[in-house]
Amino acid sequence: MISIVIPVFNNGAAMVRECHAALGATLATLSEPAEIIFVDDGSRDDTLEALKAIQRADGRVRVLEFAANFGQHAAFSAGFDAVRGDVVVTMDVDLQADPADIPRMIAPLRNGYDLVSGVRTNRRDPAMRRLASRVVTKLVTSLTGMTAVKLRDVGCPFNAFTADVAKSLSAFGELRRFLKPLAVRVARSVTEVEVVHRQRAVHHVRTSYSGTRLLRLFMDFFVNSIGDLFAWLFAIASAATALGVVAFAVLAVMHLTGMVRLRYPIAAMAGTAIAALVALLGLIGDYTQRIYRQSSGRPFYLIRRVHETPGAPDARGR
Asked: How far apart are CA 116 and CA 106, in angstroms?
């Protein structure tokens, strides 16, 4: 069974209806049963009502209604936790990814791959957004050790996973905000498929990822992924401070005996003070990071209601 997970937030009735129609045309060509999971991320327009109407007319559709706006990655995560199929496909509702490419995305999974990452060709996004995406891709790749995999488009939302990979991501807590790097980490085999990238289906709907939000997402990623950086900084700077104290003591004695000029013990004292300040910053940074991780206690997502048809097909299509 194929589970398609699509987050939505204030996208409007026209867009979700068009997305459902396009998916229906593609799913009609597949031999496997399928479910479509729309995750409404706290929409305040007519999006949710349109989704509920779609669900009443199509038993394959399930709607996870969030209690508030938790963000796109939380919506994907909720969808992963709810899937019934053995294959999971993620995509955006705006149809920039063509649902007709779904068979090409899932084919490698049937041949033993765990993760298929989409690569957007001839991207239709503005030049600055494409540039920001390339920069974030390089930074995320470097920080997560993904250089061996060398994904070309970390930010592409059109992907396919095995259900085992998708469900394993829930164990990572707040790091679930960075699904692609985590999926690469837990997947045994990864490949890429080039997909069509189109203009948005409804042009008046703006992307939810502004430059500011992309920056905040990256900073959140950086804080959550630097691991023991501050602890190592504290340890190294503390060792440098200890060496500086010894060097200052030796140079002070040598100065008193007339072997070196005064500027040498002064330089050693200044270097020792700088190393001590760096060690203090490392200690404060590690302590602050621990507080951040422990105090970000709001739920990753909260589902108010699940809209589904009783007796809908399970993962075996029955």
From this structure: 7
